[in-house]
Amino acid sequence: MITELLEKYPYLFSQLFSIYLVHKGGRRATLIDIYENNKPDIKSVKLLKKIAIKYNLVYTDWVHGFPIISTPLNMSKYLKMKDLGTNEALGRFLGFTCYNHDEYWNHKNARISLEIYVKEREFPYRDRQIYAEVCEKSKIKMKELELKGKQKVKKFTKSLPVCILRKYKLYYKVENM
To answer: Which of 58, 105, 171, 172 could make an S-S bridge to 75, C-beta 3.0–4.6 Å?
Structure first.
């Protein structure tokens, strides 16, 4: 089913892929970007919610203004966090390495990013980002973030079935911003 959805809705590829990783245990949760060209895309959000429900996942639309999709068990753990509602708790729940950095809004500090992409084997120019986080350069070494990227790619890849891995390859990049 996932390969058909990825082909039918290429503009939602990253979000569909992330939902599938949550379903298969590769990710604890995923944050859904509800904006397409700076406008809320309600039609796509409704589709993603239906897919999440079909995979027996929990969909919430109240966390920091963005929907989160997770398993029922992981979502219940998140809801019990003492610092629920903070950016740090959300980052920790989403599995970010740099959840406690003040990187996103503070552009004065030197920053580095970890991004994970999916590459279609048949069409190598079609790389799609499925994961991104920004870290303060003073709080983490580039080599350490590269190791985290390698580990995340390995975990994501392990959770995918052969039919997906035949068609797609995952890789990461760590870059200065």
So the answer is: 58
